[in-house]
Amino acid sequence: MQNNPLPRTLVVSIHDVSPQTQDRTQAILDDLTLTGCACASLLVIPDHHHRGRIDETAGFGDWILSRQAEGHETVLHGYFHQREKTGRESLRKRLVTEHYTAGEGEFLDLAREAALERLRRGIQAFERCGLGTPTGFIAPAWLLGNEALEAVRMAGFHYTTRIGEVIDLRSGRRQGSRSLVWSVRAGWRRLASLAWNHGLMTSTSQGPLLRIGIHPPDWDHAAIRRQILAGVRAALAGRKAMTYDGWTAHWRAAA
Q1: Quick check: pTM over 0.90?
Q2: CA angle 134, 242, 215 (to 5 degrees)
C-alpha cells in the first residue's frame, strides 16, 4: 500500500560542472529558471581532466554553495571524468569508450578498490568546498561497471543512475527511466539528437519520472538549446521539478 503516491516528476541534471564549465552552467541555470524549473541536479567533477581541483580553485566553492542554497543538488560525477586507456581493449570497448563517449567512461571498468579510492577522494573534495557529503554518484557517460557499482554502494551513496534507470543503493530497487541526452560533437550527431529526443519526449511523456540531461556544450547550439527548454516547459505543465535526491526520498516514502 502506498501512503505517499509519487508525483509525476521532472529531474533536470546538468553534467560536467567544474571550474572550466562554471559560466556555461550558470547560463543554463538562468535559462531553466525562466522556464519555471527552480531546481536541478548539478553533476560536479572534482578535477576535470586534471585541469584543476574544485577545492583549490578560487571562487568555485562559494559559487556552488550559492547554487545549493537556491535549492540545487550537487552530485559527485566521477573524479577526473577521463578513462585511462589500457592498450588491451576489444573493438566493442573501443567503440564505447572512444566513439560513444570520447574517452569519458572513467568508471566503466575500474576495479572495486581503485573506484572506492577515487570516490573517497571526490567526497573529500566536496567536503573541503563546504558542500557536505554528496548523497548521489553518477558515473561519467552513465558508464558504471559492476565492480565500480559495488564501490559506490560501499562508499555510502544513497543512489546512482544509469542512462536507463535510477538505482536506490540502500534497497536495490530500480526505477526504469530513459534519460534524454544530446550529442553535439558533429553536425550529424546534432541532427540525430534532435530527431531522437523529439521521439523520446513523446514516448516517455506518460512515465512517472522524466529525466533530462544537459551538458554545457549543448548551450553552444541554438536548436539544441531551444529543444531542451521547450521540453522542460512542456514537462512542467504536468510535472513537479525535483532533484535526484528529492525524488529518491519521495520514492522511498512511497514504497
Answers
A1: yes
A2: 70
